[in-house]
Write a structure and sequence with these properties.
The protein has about 280 residues and is an alpha/beta fold. It has helices at about 5-15, 25-30, 40-50, 65, 70-85, 100-110, 135-145, 160-165, 175-185, 185-190, 235-240, 255, 260-275, and strands at about 20, 60, 90-95, 120-125, 145-155, 195-200, 220-225, 250. The chain is globular, with a radius of gyration of 18 Å.
């Protein structure tokens, strides 16, 4: 069984590291001339998958924009994940789940276990009940060859006060989370591979400002939101992430989706060109 880290590395080697978000929020559906409904979300999402599949290796549907339509929206999300994976895309479910014990196992059963209704290659998870509380979820994910991206230093300004708080050892909360996640990838680091436990680190401020040491993340995939509409530039990945830049997966959503159904393919191509410049 090929784990998430190996699949991510293969995808980024073949098609570059860009990840395209799938965010059918109400304003975007209106801009696309679609109804604000599960049917509208389906049309937008499948259009994104069609445009992304020949161009990138990874997509990231945001669960909230499907969940808001209730069971009909969840059914659409299941379909979108299934179609995207069948097209050869890796899917990162952006749901930011996090809990303890049997509840964590329940989230894993929904999103990460083999044959799960919403089975994705990875899921974003929230570690603020302690990263160790997520171990049951991580175990189930890895048993199925899947993985997680743990929130460490997010791109929203409201997160700074919590994530930059100092722990007993003098480091930041963000650094502690990143270090604990990276420790779970120690086996992959020894073989120069990528691990199955990634971290989410926003691109809106330099890595050093989060207190995270770049050299500690050598085997750790980094999902990096904040590019495009939030202000970070793809051309600046090296400057933002330093020695950790090699494992960065930059995520773009609004700057691609706002191009509309006729312009989305060209927008993806433009972002890929910026990355390779």
């Amino acid at each position: 069984m090929t784990g998430l880290g190996a699949r991510l590395r293969a995808a980024t080697d073949a098609r570059g590291p860009l990840c395209v978000g799938i965010d059918p929020h109400a304003a975007l559906l209106r801009a696309w001339g679609l109804p604000d409904s599960a049917a509208g979300a389906r049309e937008l999402a499948l259009t994104v998958v069609d445009a992304a599949a020949p161009r990138v290796g990874i997509v990231k549907p945001q669960a909230a924009f499907f969940e808001r339509f209730g069971s009909a929206g969840i059914a659409v999300l299941e379909e979108v994940i299934r179609v995207a994976r069948a097209a050869g895309l890796l899917v990162i479910g952006d749901a930011k789940r996090g809990d303890i014990g049997s509840t964590a196992e329940g989230y894993a059963a929904a999103w990460l276990a083999g044959g799960a209704p919403l089975e994705s290659d990875a899921l974003t998870v929230a570690p603020y009940l302690g990263l160790g509380a997520l171990d049951p979820l991580i175990r189930i994910a890895q048993e199925a060859g899947n993985g997680v991206f743990v929130l460490a230093s997010t791109s929203n300004p409201e997160g700074v006060v919590v994530q930059s708080a100092r722990t007993a050892d003098g480091g930041t909360v963000a650094a502690t989370i990143a270090r604990e996640a990276a420790a779970r990838n120690a086996g992959a680091a020894a073989t120069r591979e990528w691990g199955d436990i990634g971290v989410v680190i926003g691109a809106t401020r330099p890595l050093a400002e989060s207190g995270i040491a770049a050299d500690a993340l050598a085997a750790t995939p980094i999902l990096a939101p904040g590019f495009g509409a939030q202000g970070a530039r793809l051309a600046d990945i090296g400057a933002i992430f330093g020695a950790a830049a090699a494992t960065v997966i930059p995520s773009v959503s609004r700057s691609v989706l706002e191009a509309g159904p006729e312009g989305i393919a060209a927008a993806i191509d433009a972002h890929r060109a910026e990355l390779s410049a």
